[in-house]
Amino acid sequence: MELLLVLSILSAAIPVATGVAKKKYTLLWLYPLTGLTFDILNSMLRRVWHMNNGITANLFIYFEFLLIIFLFRKTVLKQAWIFYSVVTGLSTFYIADTITDGVFVFNMFGGSVFMLVYIFLSVNCLYLILKSKQLIILEKSSDFWLCTAILIYAAGAFLIFLFKQYMVQTDRHSYMNIWRYFFYPVNIIKNVLLALSIYHMTGKKEH
Amino acid sequence: MNANAYIALGILAMLMLVVSIVFFVVYHQRSMITIYQQKEKELTEAAIQAEENERNRIAGELHDDVGAMLASVKLNFHQAEEDGAGSEAFNQSHRLIEETIDKVRKMSRSLQPAMIQHIGLSKTLRAFFDMFTVSNVIAIHYEATPLPDLPANIALGIYRIIQELMNNTIKHAHATQISIYHTATIEQLIFHITHNGDGINQQLFEEYVYQKDATGLKNIVNRLKVLNACINFDKKNEEYYITIQIPL
To answer: Which of A23, A118, B5, B188 has the fewest Cβ atoms within 10 angstroms?
Structure first.
């Protein structure tokens, strides 16, 4: 296995370890733990047991969506009706789209829609931090690091997910390079920033 | 370049945009914190300056009035020792002692309106407004409905804020008619002030408060912070409205 892939998978252990060290077993901690578990499982299925990992990949994308949407519940999606509409609407879309394409095929288009939603949520969250009357030191803000982590991850993954099919058909080798040199580093950055977010968690409402 | 290279460039552009957004947020927040710290510093300086001015005023009054009166009393007593009880010097000393007592009482009242503790905020405010209405130049309508029991420090804080607002409304806004009433719930006490002068809105208040000579407004802001209260200035139909919300 190549080094970047291993680093990308293992980077999720940084926020998990931070959560364990700080005894912060929250939803935020559960996110990298889910990522780590699914990444290991996906790699084992594909590279060791040479099996299709479409189902686990689709499941991860969906669990990730649920975790992220719940993480933004107290900041961006405060109103219950908006929150439940977004969860129900996007869940229906993703499940329907996955079934249409086949559950054994990694639903990249559904994933790209989620990435777009994450970009919107993170930017909105950053805007709320700026708009807040309570001035916070950003470097010590868990919400700020979370928004930055999700924003960088979603911005890096969005176009890769959206154009995956097209890129594979055009030039599979360059697609693999794009995945390798964009997605893995972005995933590593995300996990490091998530660790910072967990480290600075206080349990208090920040803004 | 093939299509994948363009997509790679697109990803790179998106990442750069995201990093720019994050940097902008950090930069903006840092500027806001610097401005906030500067404002806090100005408010603290204003509070210190106000305290210093008050000390100077008291020192001046003690030296010029009370000190001079007591010196006269001392001289008159020397004369009275020679002339005996019931002399002009003795009577003059008696009058001066009464004047000194009166002066000290007034100074004490200006420092701490003792009435608040005894008759309550509502009646103390009424007495304060009556001092203005005696002149017939200004009409103050105050609906003195009963107020909830307030701790002494909160009552004094509210009194000082309203005192400063009234002084400003008369001195700077040149109002001739002022109306004041308050509403109270379990959670908060709200004072509503309306006047017909040349007042200010919220935006102007926020501009003026950080000007160097706006000591009065800075004192209001400092007292509001102590009470955890907020103030709002507004203008509707040629009338100016001031609302003070004090959490209880």
So the answer is: A23
